Amino acid sequence: MSYVQIDNLTKTYKDTIALNHLSLTFDKGEFVTLLGPSGCGKSTLLRSIAGLAPTEEGSIHVDGVDITHLKPKDREIGMVFQSYGLFPNMTVLENIGFGLRMKGMKKSEYEGKVKRMIELVDLVGKEQSYPHQLSGGQQQRVALARSLVMEPKILLLDEPLSALDAKIRKNLQVELRRIQRELSITTVFVTHDQEEALTISDRIFVMDLGNIVQSGNPEEIYTHPANEFVARFIGNYNVLRAEQLRQLTGGGSFAAVSYAIRPEVIQLFPEHAGPEPSGNGWLAAGKVKDITVTGNVLRYLVESQDQRLQVDHLNTAKELWIQRDMNVNVWIPAEECVPLG
Amino acid sequence: MKAGKLFHVSVVTLVMLYLFVPLAVTFLYSIATDWYRTFLPEGYTLNWYREMLTDPRLLEALWRTLFVTVFTIVLSILLMVPTIFIVTVYFSKWERLLQAIVMLPYAIPGVVAAVGLIRIYSDGPLAISGTVWIVIGAYFISILPFMYQGIRNSLRTVDAITLVDAAELLGASRIQAFRHVVLPNIMPGVMASVLLSFSILFGEFVLANLLIGGQYELLQVYLMRRMDESGHLSSAIVVFYFVLILILSGLILKFGRSAKEENA
Ligand SMILES: Nc1ncnc2c1ncn2[C@@H]1O[C@H](COP(=O)(O)OP(=O)(O)O)[C@@H](O)[C@H]1O
Ligand SMILES: [Mg+2]
Hints:
The structure holds two protein chains of two kinds. Chain A has helices at 42-50, 92-102, 107-120, 136-148, 166-183, 194-200, 218-223, 228-234, 242-249; strands at residues 4-13, 16-26, 31-35, 57-62, 65-66, 77-80, 154-158, 186-191, 203-208, 211-216, 238-241, 258-261, 267-270, 281-293, 297-304, 307-314, 327-333, 338-340. By secondary structure, chain A is of the alpha+beta class.
């Protein structure tokens, strides 16, 4: 049996189904991510694991114990809220020590533990500060330390980084992962940012409409999206229906309903040229309609056989020959066309 | 000076004058011996103040009013803070209902309320008509809207729901979460409601006069009665009242601010 096992979990609010017979499992020490668009039920799932949102159906087992009906405080689960949820009337030290104090420990007993936690999250020197005197990133660290000091069985993180600006966010992603490894704490991380999910996770659960639509490690999710929703959400996949692909490639038999092609696997060649040696794939004439520079990536919009394709290439000198409104040959490798269910 | 700024300054000056001049004139009148033939008073005296302050009735009335107001507000805090907290955090579907009930007093004019209250409470199991309790009851109701708004807004501002969730996940009971986390953070906001309720109750006349009048003479009623005696005396009373409320407000504001600083 897996460390965490969620079966058939269902939760409705008045007229919305927030969790729709959702099941998932993961192992001890794993860093798993719930990825999905806003409103798909990520927070609801976290809150029901924490015991803050009672569910109508289904069960949650942690380490073989049924916790479905336990009170939040008896579950030994830590949670970091998107809005931090720090206690404004307490210092950093008091915030982090709050849980231990509630356990009946004296300040002298828990101070050492809290100090070590403050070192772990790199907040030395801020012990006596109040939350409003800290930056967003620092507040998030306090919230993290406050949960971690309780040594929870599972750490839940609800979009902990989404309120922070890009740079701090990248740093915290790395640091979060370091801390998670150091403590080998089972972690459930929620985000709606696919890049963040792919960078940070051991395992990703993609959610849509209160359900898990795909699970796997980042590599699997990225290279083999299970359906059109995942393909569109996870990358900027080109999604083509079978007959569109047939039209583009000028024949061939395509059994699945639709196919996803990553923008970076499509190659462009000058008119009348092609790959050498030409492997298994299709060459089609097309025209470059638009070029955008997104830093290290050049993004082409290419039209071929009435189909529009997005093509991403690394921004190098090799690409300089490609101009807007130029006629080109488009090469689509056959093994990169991922059939979607 | 730019025209726009000049305009702003003159508007503010005018408004200040409009508010301040009557007060200044009232003050002058309260220390004047005679003031009807000349532009400024003919002489100055503190007799009116002496007369007012040496009346034992005044002090008694002051204590009564203080008792009634403080009692009512303390009662309101004790009952309303937990109620609004519980409804906001645990029973949010009842919030609408609570809000509707609490806002009702807004809609009922004092006179109507007074007549209704007297009729209901003059006999039957709860015959408190003519006692101080009926005033306290009525006052409790009339400050409900302000207490409710203030408390609920503070709960929202500090995001009490998340704070409670966080505290409970860290092992606090609901009561501990309320006491250690919610209460200290909403205190400044609650103090603001208290201040407002204080000034409302201190100036309230209709209910005080109709419900209990001379039987339990409150400061407002006493002052109104004495106003008929002399213009100078009544001016002294107005100034006295103004200073009293100023001091009270100052105290409460200061208290509220220091509570906030403690939290911050
Ligand atoms: N307290 C609530 N009352 C009513 N509907 C809610 C409540 N919380 C969430 N929902 C609804 O449940 C669905 C899932 O919400 P949520 O779990 O917050 O999504 P996510 O975190 O993925 O953005 C949404 O449609 C949302 O509107
Ligand atoms: Mg959410």
